[in-house]
Design a protein that fits this description.
Elements (H helix, E strand, L loop, with lengths): L12 E8 L5 H13 L2 E3 L23 E7 L5 H4 L12 E7 L20 H19 L5 E7 L15 E3 L10 H25 L12 H5 L76 H5 L5 H4 L30 H24 L2 H17 L3 H20 L17 H14 L5 H21 L9 H20 L6 H8 L20 H8 L13 H18 L2 H29 L4 H12 L15 H19 L13 H4 L2 H15 L4 H17 L3 H15 L18 H20 L15 E6 L9 E4 L29 H4 L2 E3 L4 E9 L5 E12 L2 E3 L2 E5 L3 E11 L3 E12 L5 E4 L18 H9 L3 H5 L5 E6 L5 E6 L5 E5 L3 E10 L8 E8 L2 H8 L6 H13 L3 E3 L14 E9 L6 E9 L12 E16 L2 E10 L6 H8 L9 E10 L5 E7 L4 E7 L4 E9 L29 H19 L1 E7 L6 E3 L9 H7 L4 E8 L11 E3 L2 E5 L3 E10 L7 E9 L4 H10 L3 E3 L4 E3 L8 E11 L3 E11 L27 H10 L6 E3 L4 E6 L3
Parallel strand pairs: 1-3, 1-4, 4-5, 5-6, 9-17, 19-25, 35-43
Antiparallel strand pairs: 2-3, 7-10, 8-25, 10-14, 11-13, 11-15, 12-14, 15-16, 15-17, 18-20, 20-23, 21-24, 22-23, 24-25, 26-27, 27-30, 28-29, 28-31, 31-32, 33-36, 34-35, 36-40, 37-39, 37-41, 38-40, 41-42, 41-43
Subcellular location: Golgi apparatus
InterPro entries: Ig_TRAPPC9_Trs120_1st, Ig_TRAPPC9_Trs120_3rd, Ig_TRAPPC9_Trs120_4th, TPR_TRAPPC9_Trs120, Trs120_TRAPPC9, Trs120_TRAPPC9_N
Organism: Podospora fimiseda
Amino acid sequence: MALDPLIPIAPARVKALVLPIGHIKRERFTAFVERLNVEHIVHLRDVTPDPRPHRNMFSPLAFPQGAMFYELLTHHPPPSHIALSPFDLYREPLAVIAVADGVELGNSVFNKRHSGAAGRTIEETNIRTLDQELEGLRDRFPKALAHQVLIFDYLPSEENPVPIPEGIVTIPPAELLKRTTIKTVMCDISSLILAEMTTLAKSVEGMSYIDSPGNTSSREVHGMSGGDAAGLGRRNSQFAPVNRSSSASGLADRSHVRMSMPPVPSKGEPFGSSNSTPVRSPTPVSENKPLPNPPLYTFDSILGPSSDAGSDRPGLGRSDTVDGFRTQSQDRVAVQGFGSGGINDKLRSKGRCRVQVVIGSLYLQAGLWSNALKELTEAATIAKSINDHIWHGKALELCLISLLLLGWAEVEFQIPTVLLPPHEKGTPIAAALQEAEARDPKQPRWLRALQVYLPEQLDRILGLYSRITAEHLPPLPQSETVIRFCRMLTALHIANGKLGPEALEMMVIGTLPSKPLTTSPRFTIAPTRTQIVSTLFKAFPASASELLTTVDRIVILSGIASVLGLLGFQRKKAMVVRELVSVLIGGLVEARTRGAADVGIHPAAGLVGLNGINGQGNGATGSGALDLAEGDIEKGIEAFLGLLLKTYGIVGDVGNSATTDEAKSNTDAEILARIQRQSAARFFGMQNVKLNILRSCINFSEALPDFAGVLKYSSDLLRTAGSGIAPGPKREDAYPAISREEQVRLTTNILKTSNLSKRLGIGNVTAEYWDEFLLRGIRLEPTPGTKAPVPHARTVLPGSTAARASQDVDPFIYNPFLKRPDSAVLDTTLVAGEPANFRVTLQNPYEMDVEIESIRLDTEGAEFESAVETTIIGSYRTQVLRLSGTPKAAGTVKVMGAIVKVRGCRERRFPIFLEPWSPENETKIKKTGVAALAAHAETLSPAVEKLKPYSFDLNVIAPQPIVVVKSSTLPQSSVMILEGEHQRFSVTLQNLSATTPVDFLLFSFKDSTQEPLQAALSNRDATPTELYEYELVLAKKQALRLRNRDKSERFIAPGGTATFDFEVLGKAGLTKGVIQVDYAHLGMPPEEVVAEEFYTRQASMELTVTVNASVDVTRVDVLPINGSIPESLWNKAAEGTKLPAETHCLLLLDVRNAWPSQMTIELESVDARIKVEEHILPGNTSRVVLPIKRAYLEDPHAFIPALNPSRQRQFVVSTKISPEVERANREVFWYREKVLDSLKGRWRTFSGQNRKGDIELRTLRFTSRMVEAIKIDEVDIDVQVVDPESPHPSPQRKSGPNVNVVYVDEFLQLRVTLTNRSARPIYPLLRLTPALCHRPFNVTLDFTRKMAKFAWNGNLQQALPLLEGNGGTYVFSTGVSALCRGEFEIGASVEEAKVWSPPPEEDGGEEEHTSGDGKREKSETEVLADAALGKRERRVWFARRGCKIVVRDRR
C-alpha cells in the first residue's frame, strides 16, 4: 500500500525507488514491499553513524531524537516532478532498493547473457547475476545515494554457503524472521543515505546559483558562471569510479566548501545539539557581513512595551542572533553593477540563500530537524531581505514542517523570529494565546504558540507563493502546497483546534480520525471548515490543461477530494471526484490512442489488442493499456469510483465487491441487507444526477479499458433506473426511468463486454444482475395420483396394534388408507430417483428481453439434482418456466430459491419472494447528508422487515415401486348382481419397477353406498338405533372384500405380477365401487417398522355394479303362544318335535319375490333349531310362520353401543324424549338384536343362471307389543294348587295346561313359587287375585269376595323376604277353598317393595362417598343413567299364566 503523497510532512520524506530484480512474481513482490513499508519510519537513535570523518555532516548522533520518513515507490517519478528539484528536493529518489525472491534463486538461471556470472550452483550464479544487475542499477540511477539488493525468503545452504557480495542483503523467510530484521535493513540503508548526503550537500554548496522551478537560469542572463544543475549528477561514493575523487577537493570551486569554515553558533539556541558532533556551519553568510534586510517585526514589538506578560513567557522572546541587524538599504540608491548593492551582489546573495534552503531541506530529510530549522531560519531571513518570495515561502514552509516534527517527537523548541506574525496582528494573536492557555493549561507552551501562529503563517506562505513576480511557482507545487496546508488545518480542526498528539499524528503519520466528521456545525473551532475549504479550492486546477499533465491534475483533484472527505463535506467531495472522473476519461482515451498507435493498431480496434498483449493472462482486469495491475484496479480505481457512487447514492450492488465472499453474499440475510441498502439509496439524492454519474463511470471504464467496470456500472445504471419493486396483482408501476433504447444498449454492451473478455482469456468477468426480485415463485407440480406417495402413521400398520391384527383393516371402523390424502403433504413429498416438475415464476420489469443462460434449483439437505434450463424472459412481464429435478437420496430437501445465470451476469442465487413489495421512504429524518444514507442502509426499515424470503421443505422417501392393474376377470370392469348375492372375481397387479419389489400390499374398498351412510351418520337428529344400523351396515355388509386375505401372498417381485380374488355383495343403492391398493417397499415386516411414518402409493380399479332386487320382507309380526298349536305347524317347522309354548313364540314374515323367476327361501332359527322352506312364484308374496325361542336379557335398558371407535361416547343424554320412551326404545333394540342374531334367511333361484344369496333381515322393525311376546321377565311367578293332606303335596289333577280340578268345600294349599332371574336381589311384595273366569276383571274379584264363592287363609297381599338374584327362589303357601262350583283363576303379581341398593362394603371396593344423612351418594355413572332413563323405580311383574281351578261337586 503506497503512502499518502500529499501528507503535510511530505517534504521531509525520503523517496526510495523499489524495483523487482531477477525472477519474482507480482504478488510476492507486493508482499515484500509491504514488509518494508511497515518500517518506513527509521529513528536516528537506531542508525549506526558512518565511521568516516568526512561523512559525518548528517551524523545521526547530532540529533538522536530525529527520524527519517521513507516513501517507497514502485515507479520512477515523472519528469514533471523531477524538474522541480532541487526546489522540491524530496521529489527525487535518494535510494534504489532492488527486491529479489530467494525462493527463485535455485530454480533457474536468471540471465545467461552475463559474462563471468557462472558459479558452482544455480544459486551462486543467480547471486552473481544480481550483483552485476546491481551495478547496472548504479549506472541507470546515478543520482541515487544508496543502491541495495534485498533477497527475501533466502535460506543459505549449510553445506556449501554462497558468498554474498557487498551491496546485497539476505532476509530469511517470515517464519524465521526476527522482529528487528527488516528494521535493521532499513537502518543500514539509512546509514548509507546519511553518509552520502555529505557528498550531495557539498555538491549543492559548490553551486553558485539555483534556478527556481519553471524559470530560465539568471546566470545565463547575466553571464555568471559557477556550478549548475549538472553538478547534481552523482553516484554513491562508496562505488565511485576510479577517476573520481571521494574528497571535497574535486569540486570546481573550493571557496564554497562549507566544511572548512568554523561553526557559527546562534544565540538563544534551544537545541544544543551542535556541540555534540562537529558539523558544518549552519549559515553561508559571514558574520562580518550584515544581512541586507533584517526583520522588521519581533514578538516583543507585537506585545508592545507596556506588556508585562512577554517577559514571563519563555520562548516568546526574540532571538539575539538578529538583534544587531539593521536596515542599510532603505534609502540607498542602487548602482547597477557596482558595490554591494549591485545586481551581481544581489544575485550572489540570492544564490547563497537558495543553496542554504536546499541544505536545510537535506537536513529535514535526514531527520536533523534542529539543524534544518537553523539553516532554514537564516535562509528565510536572507530571502525576505532580497525579496526572493518563492524561496522565502519555501524556507518558511520547511521551517514550519521542522517545528511540527519537533512537536511530534516531543522536543521543546522556540519559534524562530522569522515565523512570528507582523506587529499589526499581535493583539488578536495574544488574545488567542491567552484563550488557548485558559482552555488547556496543560498544553506545552511551544505547541500552544505554534497552534495559534499556524493558520496565519500558512496564509503568509501561500501569499508568498502567489506573488506575481518575474519568478512564479508552477501550478503543481503550488496546488500541492495548498493541499498540504489544508491537511494541516484539517488535522487541527478535527482535533478540536488543539495542536496535540492527535493532530500531530494526523499531520506526521497520516493517521485517519477515529470518528469521521459529519455536516454538523463546528463554528467555535478554529480554524473553521469554511476557511479551510475556501483555501483548499485555491488548489483547484485551472482550465488551461497545458500547465499540468493529466496525472498531476488527477493527483491534485484526489488531494482536494480527500481533504473534503476528512472535513465531512461528502457532496463537495463527490463534485470534485466527478471532475476527476472526467479528467481520467480524457487522459485514458489519449493514453489508449497513443498505445494503440505505438503498436500499429487502430485506436478503436487496438484497445482490445493492447489488453490482450499486456493483460497478464488469466484474471487480468482489462487495464493493460495503462499498465495497471489487477490489484490496482480492485484496490484503487474501484474503491475510488465506489466512493463517488456512494456519495451520490447510487443504487449499486454494494455487497458484491471483489473482496466479498460469494457464498456469504448469497445468503438470505445478505440479500435482505442488500435490498435495504438499495431501497435506502433510491430515496437519497436526485435520480437524474445518479444516472449521469453512472454514464460517466461507464465511459471511464471503457476508456481504461476496464471490462469489470463496464459491466458493473452498466448493471448499476439499470438498477438505479429501475423501480426496485416486486409488482403484485394491482400492477404497480414498475417502469424504469430510462428509455427502452438505452436499456437495450446497456444490455447489449454487457453481453458484448462479457463475450469479449471470454475470447481474450481475461477470465470470468461478469456483471451483477440488476433486479433482486427475479424469482417470484417456485411450486412443485402435483404428482400423478398413481405415483403420489401418501403418508401414514406407523400405528396403522397391520400388527402394530391389536386393532390392526389383520393386514386389511376394517373399512368402516377406521381405514386411514381410504382417507383422502392432504394435498399439502402430497405436494411436498418426493421419491428418490424419480423426477419431479416445478413451476418457476420469473419477472422482468424492464423493457428489454432477458436471456437466462442457465437456471437450476437451489436446495440444501439431501442430495438433489436439478435440471438446467434456458429461457428468454420477455419485456415487462412475469413468465412461468417448468423445471425438473430428481432427488438422489432419502431425507429432507429444502428449496431455497434458484441459481440463475443471466447471460453477461454472474451466476448467483436468487431467493423466492412471493408477496408483492415496494420500498418505503423513512418518514423520520434523524440525520442528513451521506450519514443519513448510511444510517438508513444499516437499519432494516419496516418495509424490508415485512419482506421474507420464501422456502419450502420437500420430504424425499426411499425408492418405491410402481404398480398397475394389468387385468381382471370382470368384462369391462362391470358386474350385474342380485341383492344379497355374493359374486367372486380376480384382479392381476403388475410391478413396473425393475429394481424395487413390493413387500407391502393393503386393499381398501369404496362404493356408492358408503357416502349416503356417512351422511346419515353425521346427522345430529339420528337416534342411537339408527346410528347403530348405519354403522353395522358399513362394518358388516361390505360391498367389496378380499377373499382369503390371510392366505394370499402379499409380495410382487420387480417386474412380476400377482393375482388376488375379490367378492362383491349386492346391496341396495350399490352402483359403483373402487378397489384401492396401497403398496410400498418397506424392506422389513410391517411389525418391525421403526419409523413413525411410512409412505404408500395407490393403484385403483373402478367397478360398475348393477344390483337388482331379489327378495323383500314386507311385513313382520311376533305372536305369543297362549294355547295349543296345531300339530301340523309343529311338524312343518320342527320336523315332528313339539316345542314348549312357554319358551317359544311365533314370528310371522311376509316375503315377496321381486325377481322374475321362481325362488326358494329358507328361514332358520339357530337357537330353536327350526328351519322353514317356502317356494315363491315371481311377484307373489308368501307368509312364513317360524317359531322362535323367547329371550331373556339381563339389562334390556343398556346403552346402545357405537361400532365406530371414533364415535364411542360413554353417555349421550337426550333431552328430546322422555325416560319412558328411551327405556322402551332400548328394550326394543336389544330384543330385536337378540332375535336377529338367531335368524338366518337365504334364497336361491332355479331357472337360468343359478344364483343364491342372503335375505336382508335387518329391515325388520319390532314394536313394544312384539317385545312383550319375546321377552322373559326377570321374576318368574308359578302358581299351583296342591292337596295339603297328601304326605307329598303335589299339584292337583290337571285337565289342561295349568288347569286344576278340585271339589267344593275341600281345603287346598295355594303354592306360589318366585324365581329371580336377574343378578340384583329383590324385595318382593306378593299380591294374589282370585277371580271368576269368563267375567270382566272389575267384577270378578267382587263376586269372589262378597258372594263367598272362594275362601282363602290370611291376606292376599304379603311382603316376602329378600329374594336373591341369579336364580334365587322363594315358595309362598296359603290355604284356599272353593265354596261353589265353577271356574276360578288365581292370578299373581310381584311388586318391589323398595329398590335394592348394594351395601357399602360390596360397592366395587371403591372409596365410599356418603351424604350427611348417612346414605351413599350416587356416582356419576348412576347420575347420568338416571338422567337418560329416569330414576330407578319399583317394578311390578305379573304371572304370565294364572292357576285355573275347575270346581266340581264330589259324587
